[in-house]
Every structure is written in C-alpha cells, then in structure tokens.
Design brief:
The protein is α/β, with parallel strands linked by helices and about 375 residues long. The chain is about 40% helix and about 25% strand. Among the domains are: about 90 residues, D-Maltodextrin-Binding Protein, domain 2 (3-Layer(aba) Sandwich); about 80 residues, Periplasmic binding protein-like II (D-Maltodextrin-Binding Protein, domain 2, 3-Layer(aba) Sandwich), CATH 3.40.190; about 80 residues, ACT domain (Alpha-Beta Plaits), CATH 3.30.70. Strand 3 and strand 4 form a beta hairpin. It is globular and about 65 Å long. The protein starts with a helix and ends with a strand. Keywords: Amino-acid biosynthesis, Aromatic amino acid biosynthesis, Coiled coil, Cytoplasm, Isomerase, Lyase, Multifunctional enzyme, Phenylalanine biosynthesis.
Length: about 375
C-alpha cells in the first residue's frame, strides 16, 4: 500500500516547478502585451498627427474587463480576476502615456481609493482640496481626468458635485462604485479611553451615527473636508498630546501610521459610494452604458410629469432622479437624471428630443460604461 505521506515530498517540488514555469510564461506574455501597447501608441501618434491623441478609451477597457469576467472559470472569482487585469492594463497604458488623475484629497481619501480601483496604480496622483478644484484641474488640462464622489447608498447625493456640472463643459466619462468601510483610528501613543474629539467628513459621521451614539456618545464630532484630512490631523495632534480620533479608511490608516480602535463601524454593511470620472471626451458606446442629463424644467403645472412620462412610454430605465434649486429663479429647479443606454442610440435620441420640447434646457453630461467593478 502506498503511503500518501511518502508522496508529499516528491509531489510538492513538482508543483513548485510547475508554478515557476507558469510564472515565467505569464511574465513573458505580460511583456508581450506591453510591447503591443507601445505599438498602439506609435500607430495613434502616426495616424492623428498634430491632433491630440486619446490614449485612454473607457469603452474599450470596460469591454475588455467584461470579457475577462465572462470567460473566467475560477477558482479565482470574477472580480478578483478583473482587478488583476485592471492593473496589467494600467501598467501597459502608462507605457503609452502616464495619466495624471485629480481627486478629492489629501492622500488617503476614499476618492483616491476609487481612482486606483478605476485606473489602476500606474497613474500620477493629484490630490485636490475641494471638489470644484478637481473640476478646475481637469478643465485647465493640468489633469487628464478627475474623480469625484456623487452619491452614497446611505446618505444620498453629494450636492457639491452635482452643482459643479452646471457651468462646466466637462463630460462624465465613467463611474466606479466602492464599498465603504469606516474605522475608528487613533495615533499609537493615544489611549482610546481618553478621546475627546472625533474628526471625519460629515458624510462619514452620518454613516456611523448609530455606532457613535452607542459607543462614543460623549466625544465631540467635528466635520472636516475629508476622512484623509481627519487622519492627518489625528497624526499631527498626537505630537501635541491631544487625545483625538478619526473615522477613515484602510488607506488613510496605513498612510498616516494610525492604529485601529474599531473596524467596520458603518451603520449599514452595504454602505457604498458612487464616484464619477470626469474629462473632456465623448465616450463611444460600450454595449452596457448609462447617460446623465441636467434638465431645467419650465415653471408650469405638470412640468415634472412631462419630463418623466417619455421614459415610461419609450421603455427607458431611469436609474436616478435628483432635484436641486436652479439659483436662476425663485422656486426654480434643475433635475439630474441618469438612465440606462447611450445618448447616441436611436431610442435615446428620441427621448432627448421629447425632453427638449418640454424643458427649458437639456444638457447631456455624458454617456459612459456602467461600472464593471
């Protein structure tokens, strides 16, 4: 009878040799893909001459990632496999042209985390102090694209982002959804029992309200511009002996050398934030797209019904409807609408024409691939 334990020393080296051979093959194929990416850049530059060359194609990348997930047979999960390919694509694109991405900073925000998830790690990061600064950085051409938060599944819309689209000529080029996990953080030298103030973005404080009411009712909650700023403040406050804490994510915890007091303190475990990718280009159809509109309604009876009725009649799925004061007239309103489909499709063109007939203004903010990851 064969002793299975006796087979292990012989089998394990063979498996390791096989892994080494596979690693070697993978490395060669990745470099071959990188060389193809460089040739793509050369062809684009030769074909477009003096015109500005577009290296990043959101619809193309979305199609590639969808195919990766469709053909995946495991044992790695679809999203894990797509993330691996996402980074390979990011590294190859950087060989064509490294992209500078503006995002709501400072370093360590969830917005930076979303930027890395969407573009990969091979980007030049450009943290901005406020959302309108992200818009200006992209508008000026100092950044290729920007990443801004637009809505949270718990706390709703980010009004500052919506309002920034009113006068901006930028287009929405993509979206990314990020599961948000909040942690209570302190400097290593601080006793958590002595914490008197908790810093975080107002959205994060709201998303952890019930947990804070239960476990930290006596600590004063202080809203700041971002979670990363809160983490940075806590790190700096420790040098002055102040007993303060921050609510922030994993990337901020690592970046500022803080210690977790409690993990995943968000009130809802499915807490998710949606981010938008903003840039100058119109994105062609990818096959699974979403369109965002800004609509100024006429101040008349039945105005909202007139805007919504064509969606039902034409069978177009609306995924979001937000209302903001127009700032142009008393009690006037602007509607932000998302719907499934690309604005260049036949049905979307019919829809937009009908909306234009019953609205003061219809502005297409962009059509873009539905988030893959």
């Amino acid at each position: 009878m064969t002793n299975k334990k006796m087979d292990v020393p012989e089998t394990l080296p063979l498996l390791r040799d096989r892994i080494d051979a596979i690693d070697n093959e993978i490395q060669q194929l990745i470099n071959e893909r990188a060389r193809c990416a460089q040739k793509v850049a050369e062809v684009k530059l030769a074909d477009q001459g003096d015109e500005e060359v577009v290296f990043y194609r959101p619809e193309r990348e979305a199609q590639v990632l969808r195919r990766v997930m469709e053909r995946n047979l495991g044992p790695l999960g679809n999203e894990e496999m797509a993330r691996i390919f996402r980074q390979v694509m990011s590294s190859c694109l950087a060989l064509e042209k490294p992209m500078r991405i503006a995002f709501l900073g400072p370093e360590g925000t969830y917005t930076q985390q979303a930027a890395i998830k969407h573009f990969g790690k091979s980007i030049v990061s450009a943290p901005m102090a406020a959302i309108d600064e992200v818009f200006r950085e992209v508008e000026s051409g100092s950044a290729n694209y920007g990443v801004v938060p637009v809505e949270n599944s718990t706390e709703g819309v980010v009004n500052h982002t919506l309002d920034s689209f009113r006068d901006s000529k930028l287009k929405i080029c993509g979206e990314v959804e990020e599961r948000i996990h909040h942690h209570l953080l302190v400097a290593p030298s601080i006793n958590p029992d002595e914490v008197t103030h908790i810093y975080s973005h107002q959205q994060s404080l709201a998303q952890c309200r019930a947990w804070l009411d239960r476990y930290w009712p006596h600590a004063e909650r202080v809203a700041v511009n971002s979670n990363a700023e809160a983490a940075k403040m806590v790190s700096e406050s420790a040098r002055n002996g102040r007993s303060v804490a921050a609510i922030a994510g994993e990337i901020a915890c690592e970046l500022y050398g803080l210690t977790k007091v409690s993990s995943n303190i968000e009130d809802r475990p499915d807490n998710t934030t949606r981010f938008l990718i903003i840039g100058h280009q119109d994105v062609p159809e990818s096959g699974q797209d979403k369109t965002s509109l800004l609509i100024s309604a006429k101040n008349e009876a039945g105005a909202l019904y007139s805007l919504l009725e064509p969606f039902k009649r034409l069978g177009v799925s609306m995924t979001r409807l937000e209302t903001r004061p127009s700032l142009m007239s008393k009690w006037g309103y602007i509607f932000y609408i998302d719907f499934e489909g690309h604005y260049q499709s036949e049905i979307s063109q019919v829809l937009i024409k009908e909306l234009q007939a019953c609205a003061s203004e219809v502005k297409v903010l962009g059509s873009y691939p539905i988030a893959v990851l």
